[in-house]
């Protein structure tokens, strides 16, 4: 079996991805460290899952949301370019809305007087939960083992 090399930007090169090797996608993202500075954050979102009960149908899922969508799609594009043509034709990209909850804590200092220099311990804290939906993307890459 001959090994071919795929050259990416900034002179980084890696071996061509073989669909049967589960660690190569992780290696691909790590090899792009200088090209893609936020690779560690994306690496946490890489999932290797079984699509069905069968052992030979598996896929990688790359997730991104908010500001990371462009970065996620860039990594997915690098992966798709490295795969065989019959595998890259089966890649599916899903868009979705992700609900994000932020906790807002406000201090109610209305009862505090201007000449009172005591600590903030006496003030009331109000906690509000703020929900907002942000766009998200999932790239499903089938891997046959």
Automatic annotation (TrEMBL):
For this UniProt record, give its keywords in alphabetical order, as a comma-separated list: Nucleus, tRNA processing
**Gene Ontology biological process:** tRNA 5'-leader removal
- A molecular function GO annotation: nucleic acid binding
GO CC aspect terms: nucleolar ribonuclease P complex; ribonuclease MRP complex
Recorded superkingdom: Eukaryota
UniProt subcellular location: Nucleus
Name assigned to this protein: Uncharacterized protein
- Native organism: Hanseniaspora opuntiae
């Amino acid at each position: 079996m001959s090994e071919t090399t795929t050259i990416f930007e900034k002179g980084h090169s890696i071996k061509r991805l073989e669909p049967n090797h589960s660690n190569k996608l992780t290696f691909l993202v790590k090899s792009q460290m200088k090209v893609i500075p936020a690779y560690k954050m994306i690496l946490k979102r890489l999932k290797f899952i079984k699509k069905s009960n069968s052992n030979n149908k598996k896929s990688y899922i790359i997730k991104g949301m908010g500001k990371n969508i462009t970065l996620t799609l860039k990594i997915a594009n690098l992966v798709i370019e490295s795969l065989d043509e019959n595998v890259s034709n089966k890649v599916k990209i899903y868009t979705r809305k992700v609900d994000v909850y932020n906790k807002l804590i406000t201090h109610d200092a209305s009862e505090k007087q201007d000449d009172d220099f005591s600590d903030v311990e006496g003030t009331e804290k109000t906690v509000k939960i703020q929900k907002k939906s942000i766009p998200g993307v999932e790239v499903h890459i089938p891997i046959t083992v």
